[in-house]
Design a protein that fits this description.
- The protein is of the alpha/beta class and about 220 residues long.
- The protein has a single domain, classed as Alpha-Beta Barrel (TIM Barrel).
- About 35% of the residues lie in helices and about 20% in strands.
- The chain has seven helices and nine strands.
- A six-stranded mixed sheet has the order 2-3-4-5-6-7, sandwiched between helices. A three-stranded antiparallel sheet has the order 1-8-9, with no helix packed on it.
- The protein starts with a strand and ends with a helix.
Length: about 220
């Protein structure tokens, strides 16, 4: 396969992550990634910083908090503000030629996921489903996401949702035929091979600690 990559990861431009853009690039190089999407919470600054220094393909993305849960935009030109309705969030992603991905669908345990009813409401505008999110602790939630994607004939991605560098490299996609365009990305992911390993439950502890560190830094 020509490409290996992961399409949901964070940098310190997210409120719950301490990874620098350079550290992210170094880790991606180490694990053989040559096509990634950086998807910080409500920000494309991390993705732009990574793209500036990475020797490989970087898709500009963001995990955007709508009024009903998170929606990921890929191939963004500008940030979509948080706090909009799901349909308005999606509209603004589409207006700039972006793709819409549903992150960690239907997950409980405090994660900011769209529920099934809302996902069905916006389904005509959805391009991708995260069929495997390594940070989803309940395997049933990932199975439900895959079943939903198969039922509605949507391409599936396998993602790490990494908030630490050590999470990168175990869950990824291998694919051919990507030329940098959103259209070729959809076609490539449709035929991709996915490799899926669940993260340790302790990754959520790290994210909680990261939030406190970020708050302390901002306070000072």
């Amino acid at each position: 396969m020509d490409f290996r990559g992961d399409f949901h990861m964070h940098t310190y431009f997210s409120y719950d992550c301490l990874v620098s853009p350079r550290a992210l690039v170094e880790r991606c190089n180490d694990v053989g990634f040559n096509c990634i999407a950086v998807t910080d919470h409500n920000s494309i600054e991390g993705a732009l910083a990574v793209k500036e220094i990475a020797p490989f393909n970087v898709i500009i993305g963001a995990e955007i908090k709508s009024t009903a849960g998170e929606i990921t935009g890929l191939f963004l030109q500008e940030i979509v503000p948080p706090g909009l309705s799901p349909i308005e969030t999606i509209k603004r992603i589409k207006e700039q030629g972006g793709l819409v991905s549903i992150p960690h669908p239907f997950t409980g345990g405090g994660r900011s996921a769209l529920n099934k009813s809302t996902t069905l409401d916006v389904l005509p505008y959805v391009d991708l489903i995260e069929g495997f999110n390594a940070r989803t602790m309940n395997a049933l939630d990932n199975r439900s996401a895959k079943a939903f994607a198969y039922e509605h004939q949507l391409p599936i991605t396998a993602v790490s949702d990494a908030h630490t560098t050590r999470e990168l490299g175990q869950t990824y996609n291998e694919f051919n035929g990507y030329d940098g365009s959103p259209e070729s990305f959809i076609a490539a992911i449709t035929d991709a091979n996915r490799y899926e390993i669940a993260a340790s439950k302790f990754v959520h502890v790290y994210s909680t600690l990261n939030k406190f560190v970020q708050k302390f830094r901002n306070f000072h």
